[in-house]
From TrEMBL:
It comes from the Bacteria. Residues 69-161 form the DUF402 domain. SUPFAM superfamilies: FomD-like. Transmembrane segments: none annotated. This is DUF402 domain-containing protein.
Length: 179
């Protein structure tokens, strides 16, 4: 059984979202080269709420925006989740094995299970370590991919996730490119 999922920026299998607008663009400048995609969530069947560190966070609801940054460098994809007031709810880093574009020009990545979440209060969490270990144990990923996932997550936690002001500025800069 193959566990590694290919995830698409336009989230075609996201049944919770009943109505949305999706846009993607390529960027190349001093601080970023890759694809940025925006999903404007217009209508959901029910809000997406996750309990993180004992507090409920609404991650998707009517009027929310998800900005997905897929850089050419690095093995990650960063999603910034905004509420209806364009306030950042969280940053979510998927560690990736492979990234690319579909024939239709939709960015995608192969999810390597391990994730890093950064909250606006500077809390940083490493998620899904057991999923990564299970994938290694089942032969779904190589030991090299396992090690790369941890190396990438640690790099994000050490160099990117430490400054929420810088993360906010970066995310807001690219969100403004779409609105």
């Amino acid at each position: 059984m193959v566990l590694i999922k290919r995830k698409y920026a336009n989230k075609p299998d996201w049944t919770r979202v009943l109505k949305r607008k999706f846009t993607t663009r390529y960027f190349k400048n001093a601080d970023f080269e890759g694809y940025a995609s925006v999903t404007s969530i217009q209508k959901v069947s029910k809000p997406l709420i996750k309990n993180i560190l004992g507090k409920d966070y609404c991650l998707a609801d009517d009027g929310y925006i998800w900005l997905e940054i897929m850089p050419f460098k690095g093995n990650y994809c960063m999603t910034t989740m905004y509420d209806q007031n364009k306030e950042i709810v969280q940053w979510y880093f998927d560690i990736t094995r492979k990234k690319g574009l579909t024939e239709e020009g939709i960015p995608f990545f192969e999810d390597l299970f391990l994730d890093v979440v950064v909250l606006p209060d500077s809390n940083v969490l490493l998620l899904d370590e057991m999923e990564l270990k299970d994938a290694l144990d089942k032969g779904e990923i190589t030991e090299q991919e396992f090690n790369m996932a941890y190396t990438e997550a640690k790099e994000i936690m050490k160099n990117i996730a430490v400054d929420v002001n810088k993360l906010s500025d970066f995310s807001n800069k690219y969100l403004k490119e779409f609105f």
